[in-house]
Amino acid sequence: MSISHDHSVSSILLITLSCIGDVVLTTPVMRALKETYPAAKLTVVAGPTASPILGRHEWVDRLVIFDNKGKQKGAKGAAALALSLRAHKYDIVVDLRNSMIPYFVRARRRITSHKAHLANQNNLSRHAIDRHLDVLESAGMIVTGRDMKITIPDDVDAKVAAFMRERNLSGPGLVAVSPGAGSSYKLYPMEKYAAVLESLCKAGDFKFVAVGSNVDFKVCEYLAESIGPRVANVAGQLDILELAALLRRCDALIANDSGPMHIGAAVGVPTVGVFGPTNAERYGPRGSLHRIVWHREKCNPCKAPECGRASCVGDIPPETIADAAKDVLNLKNV
Q1: Residue-range domains of the chain with CATH
Q2: To 10 degrees, what angle do helices 190-203 and 217-227 make?
């Protein structure tokens, strides 16, 4: 049964994911819903870390925070969420979490991810964006675009522009580096990151801005101390939307598999994604602007390394990453 272009749809509930990168990868679903039902108000359920992105997103009319690792943890928390959502009646509820929540929500139509997940369970190479959109297409919806989107409000952009001027980060030749990640096994060794930047310093008059959260301050400071004044450490100084605004003004981004990598790809900065144990075919940045550098072991993908190694991503030679960065910076012959 096709549900596309149903003009009676005025209210949609989308139950999405929690982590920043995962939520950015679901923005094409929001685009498809808003394009198919332009008159509908879109309510999105997401984890608290994603609230900075969705709270001011142009496609999100209402944001509901689901803290399933905190105060709403477990079945009791999910039940409380479902009860609060029952205060509204939705024409359509779309669930990307493969949860039971849609069955407790008042809705005229429920679109769950069960069918799409079953179809993709043995397809490790299918990209996460396509997997999310498969949920809509399995319900008969026509998807016309697959690009991610982050809305950067004018006030945020102006604030970041001033921030960059104050730190002499404006002008050509600015490369962002995001050496952190949500999991330790995704981390490229910081001394090898320094070697990547040293190679780029020899290739041109580049400046670097090391970005991340407070947790990443130490590794960003290591890069600043290793390379010198060409590197500015701004870890912990920007929120998520401000980071997006800064990345949009850079010439390139080098990042581990992480939220900042997905943010960079979403705002259109040429991005080099550095991968090891995780599946770059599924989560890597897509498109001709971007490059993936991936050391792939036979045991990939791996989310709980037990081989005793710190991280197989560390087997990537720094020059390989530097060459990918030169490629996106159009320095192929340097």
Answers
A1: 11-137 (3.40.50.2000), 154-328 (3.40.50.2000)
A2: 40
What predicted TM-score, i.e. pTM, was given to this entire model?
0.92
φ, ψ for residue 273, nearest 5 deg? -95, 125
Q: Residue 246, SS3?
A: helix
CB 82 within 8 A of CB 106: no
DSSP strand E in 270-322: where? 271-275, 291-294
The span from the CA of 251 to the CA of 195, in Å, is 19
**CB neighbour class for 19 (10 Å; exposed up to 12, middle 13-18, buried from 19):** middle
Q: Mean pLDDT of successive 10-residue segments in the chain (334 residues)?
A: 63 92 96 94 93 94 86 78 89 91 90 90 92 95 94 98 94 94 90 97 95 96 97 97 98 97 98 95 95 88 64 90 95 46
Where is 138: in which H helix or E strand?
Answer: none
Instruction: At 39, list the tokens.
Output: 């008159």
* Separation of alpha carbons 313 and 219, rounded Å: 16
